[in-house]
Structure formats: C-alpha cells, structure tokens
What we know:
Blueprint: H1 13-18, E1 27-28, H2 61-74, E2 83-86, H3 89-100, E3 106-110, H4 115-123, E4 127-131, E5 143-146, H5 160-173, E6 176-180, E7 205-210, E8 222-226, H6 231-242, H7 247-257, H8 263-286, E9 290-291, E10 300-305, H9 313-322, E11 325-326, E12 328-329, E13 343-347, H10 353-372
Helix pairs in contact: 3-4, 3-6, 8-10
Amino acid sequence: xxxxxIENLVESPVREILKVIDxxxxxxxxxxxxxxxxxxxxxxxxxxSEHLQYGPSEGESELREQVAASLIERGLQTTPExxxxxxxxxQGIDLVAKLFVDRGTNVAVEAPTYLAALQVFDLFGAEYIPxxxxxxxxxxxxxxxxxxxxxxxxGHCYSEEQRRALALACDRSGSVLFEDDPYRDLxxxxxxxxxxxxxxxxxxxxYQSSFSKAYAPGLRLGYLTCSKxxxxxxxxxxxxxxxxxCRVSQRLILQLxxxxxxxxxxxxxxxxxxxxxxxxxxxSAFSGIADWQQPVGGLFYWLTLRPEFAIDTRxxxxxxxEAGVAFMPGESFYPRGVKALPSLRLNFSHASPxxxxxxxxxxxxxxxxxxxxxx
Length: 375
C-alpha cells in the first residue's frame, strides 16, 4: 500500500516533546527554541498585494541579493542567481537527501548529529559513516553532512584546522559536502566561523543557513547556495515540493535585514547572559553527575553522564515531564549503528534564569534518585 521507504519513517522526538511544553508550569530545555523576548516587531506595511501572488521558486530577487552579499562576506563563492530561498532549513535537508540518497547510500555524519537530519536520511534509506571533527574519516560516502559552527547537539565549534581537514577529506574522496549553519549569528566569544565549503576545491558543495534563530522560526525561512552543477537540480526539487516559499515571510525578513540596526549585538548580549546564568545553575545542580563544556555560541549544552550515573536518558524523560521538565535525550542524536553515550541536550535560551535553575535542580534530582534505586 505504501512506498517501501515508509518503513524507515519514524516520528520526530523533538516534535513529540514540544507538544507538551505549553502545559502550565512546564520548563522546557528540549527544542532549540529562541527566547520569545527576542522576536522582532513586524511591520506588515511592507507587504503589497503582489506578494500574495505566486512567486519565483528561487525566491524574491531582492532577498537573494541580500543573502548573496552576506555569503560572499563569509568567504563563499556565489552569486544571487545561485541562492535558493527555503521554507526553513529543514526543507534544505529534505531536498539534498532527495538529490543524493538512495537505499543503501553511504552518508557521512558526525556522531552525534542533528536528529532531524537523521530522520530525513533514514527515510531515504541511508547507511552511515560516523566521523568526528578530529578524525574526519568519511570513507566512500556520497554525501557528508556537517554542522561545524556551534554543532547541534554538542555546541562544538570547529577550529580552522578541523575545517580545512574536513574540506580536504571531501575533496580527496569526492564526497559532496553539505554544510548546515543555522546558529552562526549566535556567537558569544572568539571562534572560527569560516564556512567549510569555502575551503573546498575539487568536490561539489552545498551550504545552508536559516533566519529562524536570529529572527523568528514561525516565518519558516532559510536559504542555501551551492556549486553551479547542483543548483538547477535543487531548484527543480523545490518546485516539486512547494512551488516557492512564503512571499510574505520573505518580504518581512528583507525588511528586517535592511534595517541595519544593532539587532545582532542585542541578541548576542541577551543570549550570552542567559548562557552564563544557565552555566552557574548547571554547575550547582549537575556537578559530579555529568561533564560538559560551556558553548561559545548556539543554543545548547551537551551533558555526558559520568559512569556512576550512566543511564538511558530516554527512560527518564517520562518522569521528567511528569515533574514539569522537558529535555532532549542525547541518545536520539546518534546515527543508527553507533553506540550512544548516556547524555542530554539542554537548551538554555528559552527558560528564564529562575525557571532554568529550578528545572535543572529537578532534573538532577530525578537522575540521582534513578541511580540510587539501582544500588
């Protein structure tokens, strides 16, 4: 009755958990939710009746020009004609998977990596070659997926050496490099954010980012650029998916980009303070239970439980939700076939400092109680 690939279709753990965050009193560390206090004010006067009509699949020309200028500043060789506006960067993952992944196709991914990307690659039947930033051994993969800047879920930011090494590995193997870069604007300290794609010399490449984290996820807009050979195929796949992205959202984003205000500075200052407050509460609640590093950007802390507290955090999630705290079990971020470490991904941007402190104490208490019951 169904296509064979439906056998590989699984529900998104994040989307299922997000269904409960609106419960009264629920403290959420689960999804990568920007703080609602940081959402911009929207002025709909920039939207004309023409923007309610069908539009070009590639996106609005003015927005593509603005995006291309930004990409060139980052070091990418592109033009407005090679910018594709997406209905969220998740659509980019779907389009790329459709272009490259058949049943049994080798896809190189970090372990752990973005679980929604794994959901898409699984659907199309990918086999995985796991690699790390320090050891970019991507084998005979057709596609290499990476999040080098404030990685989801770990928060790791690649050094220049690691970026060059991954680009070289793709050049040598011929693997197409697919770089996902949605968090680059949320930077709180010194680090290298040069796109890995800018170091590629011989293989094909795709670079994508999003307006969701710096502006508003509800507008559902992202963008990609790529090497010349790939662009026409991705445009056709986009046409087959949704014709074009929302023109009203594109107009609103363009207006925000053209303000030339101090939004980025305000945003990073807000999130840096929230990160620092979260770190203090995390140290108070989780010292001796888990290990972590303070992220230099992005929205997440990645906690690895110490051996004496090594339990499958997926089993703890129900207890945590009953206690009014939502989080993402780290095991969900590992590709199929890779042994997962007992771990948690915690979002620090959404909860207030007071909520975060209470939620972390509650979560640590649940873990301690669960481990004590095993003795």
